[in-house]
Design goal:
By secondary structure, the chain is of the alpha/beta class. It has five domains: about 5-205, no CATH class; about 205-265, no CATH class; about 270-435, ph1033 like fold, CATH 3.10.590; about 450-630, P-loop containing nucleotide triphosphate hydrolases (Rossmann fold, 3-Layer(aba) Sandwich), CATH 3.40.50; about 640-720, no CATH class. About 45% of the residues lie in helices and about 10% in strands. The chain contains 32 helices and 15 strands. The strands form three sheets. Strands 1, 2, 3, 4, 5, 6, 7 and 8 form an eight-stranded mixed beta sheet that branches. A hairpin with a 3-residue loop joins strand 3 (about 345-350) and strand 4 (about 355-360). The protein starts with 6 loop residues before the first helix and ends in a 17-residue tail after the last helix.
């Protein structure tokens, strides 16, 4: 069978760690440690599986708490299981430096020094794309690995060896463990582990859905399917290899085009269709019994399936001419979704006060008025929960928040994968729908010493700042000018989200809701005319990107956040800053409720010399965490001195700045070090020029009308006279380096 490059090397390394550990009981990283024993696995199970950490912290933060005080053997086993988990993944999912960083973090918790063996490091480059679920459900995959090791380590040596040599018995054991924990969130780990341990028997495929789609597309090549997807894939790959004389990789041509075409052609989505208490009727029993869902709008005549938006709008306008424009727009939007946008393969959800039902669309819509106009427009649905509905109160909070909205039809793709899994439909969930699942925890990258060194700020302060952002989702960095607020915000955003998932905007006094979120804008119409259309602003555009990619963080930096009228700019969005994932009706799109995804973070910067933090309204104070950057306090205190010291330069500039701020005696008027961390200060006369053209004019503006002689009190001559040792004469070169 064909294997992608590096697959054999990674598989060999995983076998060395996993199989070798279970046969010898010894750690691959620290051979003197008995890490792969029944006792060690039971210790790890007791800490991780039996005492789950339900907080919103990242996987590593929670794992660290769970392993506090654990023996070195337990920590070594945890690290080696994470090696097994991460090694197969390609760099596009987790890069080699990131994998080593995670493993190094875990190993640092041990009392003795430990590191990844140099022979194992090359295997961390990976070879397989595990799908988004592989990143989102690390806790579930780790859970399966822990339970699997405990089960194997607890068997007698000969029996254990037989299980590790028999691919089908090992597969059965893996899925037995999955069944025992009551969910399937870690199933991708099973599929990847089967290949890495038995590459001649299993395909390098992480997705059960992909396996199913491949077998469905090549059904003619399998006259006697066994209902065991992995056995059938083995038979299929050997058959195709014999026919073509070429190795088979189902992600390469000519194979991938064949099964991908057989899969869902559109982007699978999830929809809620209301059937309970519709004008006093409960249609859900009939839906479940006869296998369909329906919508009403009895005033409108039959509209053909696949009708365009314009056709639906026209039909609604003719049917209810007396209705308001807003009501007609809402009706047209939902009818168009039901008749055209919803496609076979999509998931459908409907709710009662106590129950939730989940099914899949089976075909195009029909019009059948035989039982009345109230449910004449129908979509065929195979309901998976007709006999065993989901209990609404048992669903996760993020799912429940999406269910009580008033529209008859609306998109709930962000929670559909979770509902499908609970309904036993995980095999039909396409990868794109799993990718937008918001019910899984989001992991922010840990703040590293490298970032702290780059910013010359304390690592602990940066970690606390990132933790505040993780917990609060909105954060403001505030302080006087020159303290590096925007620089820190951008560096932190790049570290947490990457350069392609961050955006910066700047508020100003005339900034509006329409600029920020959504509003009418002139656009060019037909024949060169100008018409007005509702266009999204940067906040809504970034929110839409984040909603489609919930496994990754997105950051919007709002520079000078206090220079706009915040209540007017945010409007009803204030509610969403506190209640993420709970949709609201917005001003310009009332037919399409908007929710703010939990993976979109906001970092504001606020110049306290421009406007005091005391003037920020209470609503914003409650929704944002605030971190002060001030020259007289850590982490900014001593920043310029650290910057100069790192470059081997004298600390003259730092002493001058400290003297200036000491004389000012006002934290909000203090001058930050950024003014002096510039190449211009190194040129002859550069320091004098910066002081004369940037610092003194700022102080003159702030102290206008106070009677203070700014030049005499805060000029360089006065400051130089106060610091020792004496500085060179004014105008001489001042050593500084590029920032």
């Amino acid at each position: 069978m064909a294997r992608r490059p590096d697959g054999a090397e990674v598989a060999a390394a995983v076998q060395r760690v996993f199989r070798g550990g279970l046969l010898s009981g010894k750690s691959a990283l620290q051979p003197e440690l008995a890490a792969w024993t029944d006792a060690t696995a039971s210790e790890l199970r007791a800490r991780f599986v039996d005492q789950p950490d339900e907080s919103s912290d990242t996987f590593l933060v929670k794992l660290r708490r769970q392993l506090t005080g654990a023996p070195d053997e337990t920590i070594a086993l945890a690290a080696e299981l994470l090696f097994v988990n991460m090694a197969p993944l390609v760099p596009e999912q987790i890069g080699l430096p990131k994998k080593l960083e995670i493993l190094g973090e875990v190993l640092s918790w041990a009392d003795r020094p430990m590191d990844v063996h140099p022979d194992l490091k090359p295997a961390l480059k990976g070879f397989l794309h595990g799908g988004q679920g592989f990143l989102n459900y690390r806790w579930a995959q780790f859970q399966i690995l822990v339970l699997l090791v405990e089960r194997l380590a607890g068997t007698e040596g000969p029996e254990r060896e037989e299980l590790l040599d028999d691919p089908w018995r090992f597969r059965t054991l893996c899925f037995d463990i999955q069944d025992s924990i009551g969910h399937k969130k870690g199933r991708a780990q099973i599929h990847v582990l089967l290949f890495t341990l038995f590459p001649d028997w299993f395909q390098p495929i992480a997705s059960a859905h992909h396996k199913h789609e491949i077998l469905k597309a090549f059904a003619e090549e399998l006259p006697d399917p066994t209902a065991n997807d992995d056995k059938d894939l083995l038979t299929l790959s050997r058959t195709l290899e014999a026919q073509t004389g070429q190795p088979v990789d189902f992600y390469d041509e000519p194979w991938v085009g064949r099964w991908r075409k057989g899969a869902v052609q559109h982007e699978q989505r999830g929809w809620l269709v209301r059937g309970h208490n519709v004008d006093g009727h409960d249609f859900i029993p009939a839906w479940l019994d006869q296998g369909y869902c329906s919508v009403s709008w009895r005033e409108a005549p039959e509209i053909p399936a696949g009708a365009t938006k314009q056709q639906v709008r026209q039909a609604v306008a003719e049917a209810v001419p007396e209705a308001t424009a807003q009501m007609r727009a809402a009706a047209a939007y939902q009818l168009h979704v039901f008749l055209t946008v919803m496609q076979p393969g999509d998931l459908v959800v409907t709710v009662t006060p106590d129950e939730v039902h989940v099914g899949t669309v089976q075909g195009p819509p029909t019009y059948d008025p035989s039982e009345g106009l109230d449910n004449a427009r129908r979509l065929p649905v195979r309901w998976a929960t007709a006999e065993r509905p989901l209990v609404r109160a048992d669903l996760p909070e993020k799912v429940q928040a999406r269910l009580p909205l008033p529209p008859t039809v609306y998109d709930i793709s962000s929670v559909a994968a979770e509902l499908a899994e609970r309904a036993g439909l995980e095999a039909v969930v396409a990868e794109e729908l799993a990718d937008v699942d918001v019910t899984k925890p989001l992991e922010l990258p840990p703040v590293t010493q490298e970032l702290a060194d780059e910013l010359l700020l304390p690592l602990e302060w940066l970690r606390q700042t990132a933790e505040q952002l993780q917990d609060q989702l909105q954060l403001v960095l505030h302080g006087p000018p020159g303290t590096g607020k925007t620089h820190v915000a951008r560096a932190l955003a790049r570290h947490l989200a990457g350069p392609d998932r961050m955006e910066l905007i700047q508020f100003h006094p005339s900034y509006t809701y329409e600029d920020f979120f959504e509003g009418f804008r002139p656009v060019r119409g037909d024949g060169g005319s100008v018409v007005f259309d509702v266009l999204p602003g940067p906040f809504k555009l970034l929110a839409e990107r984040a909603r489609k990619d919930p496994a990754n963080p997105y950051v919007l930096i709002i520079d000078e956040i206090n220079r706009a009228n915040l209540a007017k700019v945010f409007g009803e969005l204030y509610f969403l800053l506190e209640y993420r994932e709970e949709p609201v009706t917005t001003l310009y799109s009332p037919h399409d409720p908007f929710h703010l995804p939990g993976n979109l973070f906001l970092i504001g910067t606020m110049n306290t010399a421009d406007r005091s933090i005391a003037l920020v309204d209470a609503a914003m104070r409650r929704r944002f965490a605030f971190r002060r950057l001030s020259p007289e306090k850590p982490p900014v205190q001593g920043l310029l001195a650290r910057w100069l010291h790192a470059r081997g330069l004298p600390d003259t500039a730092a002493r001058l700045l400290d003297e200036l701020n000491s004389r000012l005696g006002d934290a909000d008027r203090a001058i930050g070090p950024s003014y002096l961390m510039k190449p211009g200060a190194a040129r002859p006369g550069g320091l004098d020029l910066i002081w004369r053209t940037q610092i003194l004019p700022l102080l003159e503006d702030q102290l206008h009308g106070t009677g203070v002689d700014v030049e005499a009190e805060y000029g360089l001559d006065s400051l130089r006279a106060a610091v020792a040792p004496p500085d060179p004469p004014a105008g001489s070169p001042f050593p500084a380096v590029e920032s």
